[in-house]
Amino acid sequence: MADENRPPAPGAASDAVPPEVTLGALFSGFSRVGLSGFGGVLPFARRMLVERQRWLSPQEFNSVLGLCQFLPGPNVVNLAVCVGSRYQGALGAVVSVLGMLIGPFAVVLLLGLLYSLYGELHLVQAMLRGISAVGVGLILALGVRMLGALKEKRVYLPFTVLAFVAIAVLRLPLVVVMVVLATASSVVAYRRVRRAMATLVPGGDK
Amino acid sequence: MSGILLQLFLHFALLSFLSFGGANALLPEIHRVVVDQQHWMNDATFTHLYAVAQAAPGPNVLVVTLIGWQVAGVAGAVVSTVAMCLPMSVVIYFIFRHWERFRGAPWQQAVQTGVGPLSVGLVFASGTLIGLSAGLGLGGAVVVLATILVCLRWPKLHPLWLIAGGALLGLLGVV
């Protein structure tokens, strides 16, 4: 138990970490994020973590999210695990995840119940078709925005296209696609990172 | 744990290890297991549940909750959600401690940079496949396109407005 207040790692920029985020704050913070997250939770998570509560700096957010997106599993749930465990250890992780999920879980079941009661009605089916179309639009718009945020697009765009074709056109198994393409793109990225570091003036600019 | 719950747990726990790029990227795979392989529901129900999940707040992964609920009631919902979230949560809890120590290491930057473009490709694939399985016609395609344009033009607009608009257009028979 006493170990959960982990000491700051030597040399780490641990002064950026606010000293106290209680379990209650984690729960309510992530509850609010979960319940406001219509059509994707991530933007709300960023607003709460970085802008409102300042539990993470913008750079920390990108770094932690990078890990959460790299590893499988629901990204925002992973994010809740990381942030929760950073401040309150294992218990913090559990509380943050529960906060993120419990409210939406109840809402989604309620809607499911309504669907099972009224889902046969033509009007409901028509409505759901309309919502599906918007849902597809939301996903594709997210894709466009992520594409816009890609660094050094020209180099990495082929990997985006290959992933799309492998899954959507060729319908290849996801594991194979990820292992092969992630290895290839990471090797490309590694060489570029090394080259950039070699040519960079020490303490250089950006 | 009864047979069907155990099956739900095993399937979704297995899928959780494959869910690179979030739940949306995993939908084609979930569809394959739930509809084509296990025959737990038909195509129309799957698409409807996806739409219902879209209309609810919360992480996209909760579409799995609805699928579990459709298959085995509230117990199915709980089991599916836990199966989807728990295994990777435990893994990431242990990895996170080490990950922060390597912040800025070249291989870490490389992995982060390298995986990003793939996630984007998976998200596009997911949207495309859901659109196909929803059987959207010309009207549906127009709504999809309009949604994309509105999202990009007004990024601050709350998605709930778009979802309500989609419901309305559906009622009017546009889609």
Short description:
Chain A has 206 residues and is mainly α.
Outline the structure in words.
The complex is a heterodimer of chains A (206) and B (175). In chain A, α6 packs antiparallel against α7. Chain A has 206 residues and is an all-alpha fold. Chain A contains 7 helices and no strands. Among the domains of chain A are: 91 residues, no CATH class; 48 residues. The radius of gyration of chain A is 21 Å and the shape is flat. The N terminus of chain A is likely disordered. In chain B, α1 crosses α4 and α2 crosses α5. Chain B has a domain of 103 residues. Chain B is mainly alpha-helical and 175 residues long. The interface between A and B is large, with 97 and 103 residues.
Find the structural class of chain B using helix and strand composition. Answer: mainly alpha
Q: Which residues of chain A sit in consecutive blocks of at least 5 with pLDDT less than 50?
A: 1-15
Main sheet: strands, sense, barrel of chain B: none
Number of strands of chain A: 0
- Work out the radius of gyration of chain B: 18 Å
**Unreliable spans of chain B:** none
Mean pLDDT of chain A: 84
Number of helices of chain B: 7
Helix and strand element order of chain B: HHHHHHH
Oligomer: heterodimer
Task: Give the chain pair forming the largest contact, with residue counts.
Answer: A-B, 97 and 103 residues
Estimate the helix proportion of chain B, in percent: over 70%
Percentage of β-strand residues of chain A: under 5%
Distance between the termini of chain B: 42 Å
Q: What is the strand content of chain B? A: under 5%
N-C termini distance of chain A: 42 Å
Membrane topology (chain B): Multi-pass membrane protein
InterPro entries (chain B): CHR_Transporter, Chromate_transpt
GO molecular function, one term (chain B): chromate transmembrane transporter activity
GO cellular component, one term (chain B): plasma membrane
Based on the model shown, name its key terms:
heterodimer; A: 206 residues; mainly alpha; disordered N terminus; B: 175 residues; globular; Chromate transporter subunit B (chain A); chromate transmembrane transporter activity (chain A)
